[in-house]
Amino acid sequence: MGYIMVRIPQSQLARKNFSRKIVIENKSNGGNIMNKHVIIIYLFFSLFCFSIGNSQNWQQVWEIDSTQVYSIINHDEYLFAVTGDQVFRSTDDGASWQLTENLPTATSDFYTIYSYGQNLYLGARGDGVFVSADSGKTWQSHSAGLSGFAKSIAGFTGQGDSLYAGTEAGVYVLNLINPVIWTAFNSGLFHTSVNSINSIGNKLFLSAGYYLYARSKNESQWNIVTPDTSSEQRIVYETLFHNDYIFAGTEKGIFRGTSDAMEWKKTDIKQFQNRDITALTAYRSRIIAGLIYRGEHWIFTSDDSGLTWEIQAHEFAWLTDLYVSENRLWACRSDGLWYIDINSWNKIKTNNNPVSSEYVLYQNFPNPFNPSTTIGYHIQVTGTVRLTIYNVLGQKVKTLVNTIQNKGVYSVHWDGTDDKNIPVGSGMYMYQLQTNTHNLQKKMLLLR
């Protein structure tokens, strides 16, 4: 039995200061061990290298190693992405990436990057702030006034002629008219270890410890604006202003607040409630949320201001940031930088859609589910149809359909049992539609 310790140095979620343990168990079967492993790997790869939507395909940025990427930003028509010890730049909307020149010297990990005005600001987890006035070609340290834990930067936000840095020692502000020294901006804070900081309208929003704070520039102190009135407090990882609402991603789901942050309503993902929502972004009228659960991440979208959510992606990696640029959604993950054409999600259909002129395997609903779900599909030509459930090792769990069917739209109910009608455990399952000419697959999640 071997163990790999995976440190989660990042994002807001890492502030819980825990590590994850991945257990790898090697079972030998004489001389057949290699063949057995090859078969299992092939089945696993073939089943998981398809997407939830027919046209959904994540692409990895190969110029960046499969390493933790923390942050991505657009500045001066360039994209910048940050790993622990590198800053990458793309001058062609992400088609290719290069290392930036003359990286600043730092003894700690780079963590966040922010664009404001004509400058780029790079935050490290122990070396403070670096600034570039020439799109990342050169960098200078700009940490005067920061010392100790204040040199561990969690994020930046700008408002008017001021730049704010959220740190492990609270909030510090830099006057950009005379940018000489950072000064503390902490009056009213009960906790100073910042998770995230954001500027929404004329207010600053700050997540520190178990509290969400708001403060206008002319106010004398931070004020608590909790998204949950229950006695149990919530760590807030991320905030987003969209469609006149403030959304808070917390360790217990998603909350929606009025623009003044005085009234809040829980608008959580119903089939995946009370989970860590560590990333929020938006594309046109759509909200995009990143959810962490059991060492993996899911991406959900909402087109009705958080009232309902639809699953769009499930990946076996930690998610630290989501960012939209042009028509691409960028995902900063523990295994590198990935992107997808966000418009492909508009093609995802439910089993309520009208008859298509093609073969279609619809996403099951609900998903995730417990204890049952419905799978819809459309076939174009009369013939033999098989609909089969598999586990992650490619082993058949249950055959739902195996018969001749006429052209048309069908739906099948699965109650979460195998061929012997024994309930199966929680986890990821694949369902496969086979006809004489087509082989379509999708994945779904059962949560007991």
CATH class category of the largest domain = Mainly Beta
Major sheet attributes: 4 strands, antiparallel
Q: What is the total tally of β strands?
A: 37
The DSSP helix count reads 1
Shape: elongated
- Structural class, by secondary structure, is mainly beta
Name the poorly predicted regions.
1-55, 347-357
Q: What share of the residues does DSSP label as strand, in percent?
A: over 45%
Average pLDDT score: 83
Q: Helical proportion?
A: under 10%
**What is the CATH T-level topology of the largest domain?**
Methylamine Dehydrogenase, Chain H
The CATH superfamily of the largest domain is known as YVTN repeat-like/Quinoprotein amine dehydrogenase
- Counted up, domains total 3
The CATH level-2 architecture of the largest domain is identified as: 7 Propeller
Q: In which order are the strands of the major sheet placed?
A: 3-30-29-28
Radius of gyration: 24 Å
Termini Cα gap: 28 Å
Please provide a written account of the structure.
- The chain is mainly β and 448 residues long.
- The protein folds into 3 domains: 2-48, no CATH class; 59-347, YVTN repeat-like/Quinoprotein amine dehydrogenase (Methylamine Dehydrogenase, Chain H, 7 Propeller); 360-446, Immunoglobulin-like.
- 4% of the residues lie in helices and 48% in strands.
- The protein is built from 1 helix and 37 strands.
- It has one helix at residues 33-48, and strands at residues 2-7, 19-24, 59-60, 69-75, 78-83, 87-90, 98-99, 110-116, 119-124, 129-132, 140-141, 153-159, 162-167, 170-175, 183-184, 194-200, 203-208, 211-216, 223-224, 236-242, 245-250, 253-257, 264-266, 276-283, 286-293, 296-302, 310-315, 319-325, 328-333, 336-341, 360-361, 373-379, 383-390, 396-405, 408-414, 427-434, 439-446.
- A 4-stranded antiparallel beta sheet has the order 3-30-29-28, with no helix packed on it. A 4-stranded antiparallel beta sheet has the order 4-5-6-7, with no helix packed on it.
- Strand 12 and strand 13 (162-167) form a beta hairpin.
- The longest helix is centred in the first third of the chain and has 16 residues, at 33-48.
